[in-house]
Amino acid sequence: MSDIIQLLPDSVANQIAAGEVVQRPASAVKELLENAIDAGAKKIQLILKDAGKALIQVIDNGCGMSVTDARMCFERHATSKVKKAEDLFAIRTMGFRGEAMASIAAIAQIEMKTRRHEDELGTMVQIEGSVVTNQEPVATPVGTSISVKNLFYNTPARRNFLKSTSAEMRHILEEFQRISLANPRIAFSLNHDGVEIHRLPASGMKQRIVHLFGNNYNQRLIPVEEETSIINIKGFIGKPEFAKKTRGEQFFFVNNRYIKDAYLNHAVSKSYEDLLPDDHFPMYVLFIDIDPGKIDVNVHPTKTEIKYLDEKSIYAILHSAVKRSIGRFNISPTIDFDQETGFSGMITHKAPEEIVPPSISFNPDFNPFAADKPSRDPAPTFPRTGNGASRDASAAIVPSTKGWGALYEVANHAETAQQTAIELPGAAVLPDDSLVPVQKQLMQLHNRYIISQIKSGLMLIDQQAAHERILYERFSRHLDDRKGASQQSLFPQTVTLSPNDFELAKSLLEDIKSLGFEVREFGKNTLIIEGIPVDLGNNNGNETQLFEHLIEGFKNSQQELKLSKRDALARSMAKNSAIKSGAVLGQQEMNTLIEQLFACQTPNFSISGKPVIQTIGLTELDKKFDK
């Protein structure tokens, strides 16, 4: 019987390694950008076509490579960073295993041009499927330009598993964000299909965060800095009021390498204890500098997990540093002298205005014992405000007589004006309760629950969960039949999103329009909102905030529950548009809410799977009273 064990050909071994190193275009982008950083580049350009599936090109002004190195870099386990086993415990560079370039070359068509400072001519190398097809001298700038074309061209099964262009682009943007955050002193640019998405100049850490996520982050950041004999910590955390329901803006870097660590994340989250709701997560960009000999970075193929020698000490230092920074922010907020109105007189050198003492006016002829009678004029009609509540009654009433009768009239009308209700989103604007025939007497408990009498006892309904269920089923129907009605905004509003959220919004645009939004692209990372769904009622001009919450809620639903795109979108809209606990409802509004709830397909359960309705029978009540 002949021997059956044999060595794999290099081309096959490289394709197997590529399965670990290159999972999608974003993986290749990460490896190429890290190589450019290790080459000492001060300016890096990333050019993409079709989200990296057609082209990934990285151009840097680093040290470049010699003729031999240009060929050797595509060999397996070829690296300039590790020469002996001890070097594995002192790694401060990004790529060090020597598999990235060989793996990428095994599944793509590559063209690389590179030149060192001391060389007059550079080298061009062309490779297809691990096979070098051409190598020749070429005139090229100092540094390296590498183009990866037709990724997975020779492994069609892997290519078929790639997601849509927008989905793959979001993964690339995530990798780009992590690498550019870790290296603020390097200038980066990102172009996709001829459109410039990012142009990041060399800057400080805070400026890099603002350039990546938007100018509004300039006021959201709190600095963190701590130096100890074990680790050094620096970076920024977000103010508690700007926390989000998704974890997308949380970055840990150990020795400038992005990592994922639930243990350290818990240390930061615990620092915000009692400041945030349970379902909100703070933003942070934190850098930990530690002796490389005290960590192991080669734990995971993607190198995003690290082992530490002294985890508990690192946890305690990180927790105390973040908590102290939050305390400093709360105790001594910064003063912006350009905006602080209290100093405006000092800044402009204007004389202070003359202080006028308060004066008291009275009627010397007033007699409280005069025989005035309450006015019999009909009560005035108070105009509605945007949220459906009446305006201040006392401001609308002008007494026609003097004395106690006038005071009685004001008090009587003020008491009547308080018996008003709010507008229920998704329902028509309702008149005052006194003008509506009561269908069934209902009661609101602590502005959270609706109590109704039934034959067997009483029924409790969670008003927020009930309205979420109603809107969820309504929006789901709109997404299915694509007939969501829209109401035009008087003043269209623009919303500027982060590049990640903008790509997500573009992929959802058709479904968002099906809900009733009128939205279109309006420049770089910007959308213009010209209409909102009729089901949302009067939104008081907060279209921008509503749209941002919609995107944030969609990301949260997909992350936590792994829902389909349409289901997650309907769920996000329902949660953000429903009335909340604490909203005052009138009799007609409660009746309308109950009627719409029992018309739903699943009225008993909320969209989170929790009960909406609870009943208490007479028998149970009798037991409470020992009957």
TrEMBL record:
Coiled coil: none annotated. SMART domains: DNA_mis_repair, MutL_C. Keywords: DNA damage, DNA repair, Endonuclease, Hydrolase, Nuclease. One of its GO terms (molecular function) is endonuclease activity. Residues 374-394 are annotated as: Disordered. The keyword Nuclease applies. Residues 209-327 form the DNA mismatch repair protein S5 domain. Residues 441-585 form the MutL C-terminal dimerisation domain. InterPro entries: DNA_mismatch_repair_MutL, DNA_mismatch_S5_2-like, HATPase_C_sf, MutL/Mlh/PMS, MutL/Mlh/Pms-like, MutL_C, MutL_C_dimsub, MutL_C_regsub. The keyword Zinc does not apply. Transmembrane segments: none annotated. This protein is involved in the repair of mismatches in DNA. It is required for dam-dependent methyl-directed DNA mismatch repair. May act as a 'molecular matchmaker', a protein that promotes the formation of a stable complex between two or more DNA-binding proteins in an ATP-dependent manner without itself being part of a final effector complex. HAMAP family: DNA_mis_repair (MF_00149). NCBIfam families: mutl. Belongs to the DNA mismatch repair MutL/HexB family. This is DNA mismatch repair protein MutL. The gene is mutL.
